[in-house]
Structure prediction request, 467 residues.
Amino acid sequence: MSFADLGLIPELLQAVTEAGYTDPTPIQQQAIPVILAGRDVMGGAQTGTGKTAGFTLPLLQRLARHANTGTSPAKHPTRALILAPTRELAVQVFESVQGYATHLALRATCIYGGVDMNTQIQTLRQGVEIVIATPGRLLDHVQQKTINLAQVEMLVLDEADRMLDMGFIPDIRRILALLPASRQSLLFSATFSDEIKKLADQMLRNPQLIEVARRNMVSETITHVVHPVAAGLKRDLLAYLLRNQPGMQALVFVDTKLVCGQLAHFLNRSGIAADAIHGDKSQLQRTETLDAFKSGHLRVLVATDVAARGIDIDELPCVINFELPHTAEDYVHRIGRTGRAGHKGRAVSLVCAEEKHWLLEIQKLIKFEIPQEIVLGFAPGTEVAEAGGRHERASRAEPRGKTPEPRSKVAKPRGNRGGGARNEQIAADGFDFSRPYVPMPRSLPAEPPPQPRRPVAVLLGGLGRRK
Ligand code: AMP
Prediction:
């Protein structure tokens, strides 16, 4: 099936060709004709499936009859509203809309919090047909009467499950109350919890359910691996793994903003160029960091789930879960950043004993067992005696930017190579529960500044004088 078979107009077919797409993805094949026919849609699709084009292309086609080059703001009322949970996702959708609308005289803008409202107000005043917004900032504009939603014909709620997680559902309900009752509505979510179904009942009329087949939930081009690891050695293992793949870009996920910043700091101190992106960073900082990562200038990006929404990088080779997410669906979201559009990807998870139940939940959701590989020297249970010494070795002894010889081989958990009685206690699944659990530090200990190296000549001179 081609895009032309889906009934898209020439302006959109041209844009799709320019984007380099040859065939529609499964979600696009299903969603585009239904949305073109004017029906409401409840779409179950993960990121990485092509869902953005799946709703943007037919949305543009339905608005194409309003396309005009008039200068009066009255000629450009807001006709489509796309709500996204985060700034990053909103920007990503906006960029898609801009790309696909290249050959149509339709205006689009993106409004999100954390930046000055005045520029957004100027743009809205001039008239704009498509508004992509985060819920909070949209309501700010509603309150200030700088946006009029009375002529909205199409509403898209993207990543509704994430909206729920982030507490946006009351905001969404307030926004729904401001929209005309006769409109087309599309809701996309990776999961359909009872709460999402309740929202869908309120928002959609006789929706067509479109779900990408379960087996596509995790891209088949991604290789998964779990490294069981002593909690206190996680960051050293991370540094070790990154050093053994010099030049490979990686997106590293953590659960909290605190660990996010500290881990990036630790990696930099270990000679691995890294930066952090999380909700407390300013929009400008986030944009700059993302741009550096997207352009390949930054090697490692450490991110929280929320900040990573919308990170869309072609050919990102590796996603690393420094900490497992607490909901299995987030694992799918996270690793969906790699292995995109047919490229190969690697999903690495560093898992300590405390996280084992989350691993089981993830495996239940993705319906397969992730292979476990212990990196010798970092196995669960080794941190009690060795954490301090290893930390020194992993973080500072190796010169910056130089890849060390591997200290250990990657071993299968059942191998028990050279570990003697200690390793025999390690359970078949890689975790040793006979040791008391040492919790992961809430905050990573501060690194002392590295000692400046003294030039060799100075040392020799000193020795010479003593003689
Ligand atoms: P999404 O699921 O919307 O985040 O899209 C995932 C990635 O797939 C983005 O990088 C898109 O540019 C890309 N993409 C979307 N549709 C297609 C297609 N039909 N063929 C190839 N790549 C696509």
